[in-house]
Amino acid sequence: MQDTGKESLKGRVALVTGAAKRIGRAVAARLATEGADVVIHYNRSKPEAAAAVAEIEKLGRKAVALQADLRSVADIKHLFQQTAKQFDRLDILVNSAANFLPAHLGDTTEKMWDTALDTNLKALFFCAQAAVPLLKQSHGVIINFADIGGILPWPGYIPHCASKAGVIMLTKCLAKGLAPEVRVNAVAPGTITMSGDPSEWEADFIRCAPLHRTGTTEDVADAVSFLIHSRFITGHILVVDGGRTL
């Protein structure tokens, strides 16, 4: 049995996109707790990114905050160049940065479509592309973030659902194309609530989930950790939704 406890990732380096806030930050903190040094990617949330770095450094791990607009391939390339410069290796890429934009068929504009697809799908592909040379050296792993919107059709969030369905297929394509050196999996969270979310979300999620509770950022971090440590799993989409998609 593998040791997935504290310090099990000691000596490894993880880059987590969108790690300044919410789920991305929780995942970054979990990986640091397990011993990894962490690159905190952010776009506009500089103060929150600095706070995330300080939190990780208190755990005795090295962390650095790097800014990039993931809609720009040039920014993505620079992000991974800086990662290599800072740490000289990369073992884990967690593509958690995303947006969640409402858009019905009749009111979806080209800008709304591009904003959803560029952040939620295009960025994941080009982050993986930029990370592969480093990950092949370390026999590393990529964890993408889909969500249950890539499985369930939501007519009020059409571009979002399309982007997340794309993440699911992208994960499978990358897993097949990068094996055996690099494993690629995805988590698909749903019915997850965090501090500051509207109270009506929790009531709706409890109603929809057979487990009759909402999930937490720790539930998602558990799933990410599991996939990182599970060396015989690739191309898998791990749904974390309390049974919502049943």
CA-atom Rg in angstroms: 17 Å
- Please report the total strand number as a whole number: 7
Q: Helix content range of the residues, please? A: 40-55%
Low-confidence stretches: none
SSE topology string: EHEHEHEHEHEHHE
The proportion of strand residues reads 5-15%
The main sheet orders its strands as 3-2-1-4-5-6-7
Explain the layout of strands and helices:
Layout: E1 13-16, H1 22-33, E2 37-42, H2 46-58, E3 63-67, H3 73-87, E4 92-95, H4 110-138, E5 141-145, H5 158-178, E6 183-189, H6 199-208, H7 217-229, E7 237-240
Parallel strand pairs: 1-2, 1-4, 2-3, 4-5, 5-6, 6-7
Please describe the structure with a list of short key phrases separated by commas or semicolons.
globular, 7 strands, 7-stranded parallel beta sheet
Textual characterization of the structure:
With 246 residues, this protein is of the alpha/beta class. It contains seven helices and seven strands. Strands 3-2-1-4-5-6-7 form a seven-stranded parallel beta sheet, sandwiched between helices. Helix 3 packs parallel to helix 4. The relative contact order is 0.14. The mean pLDDT is 95.
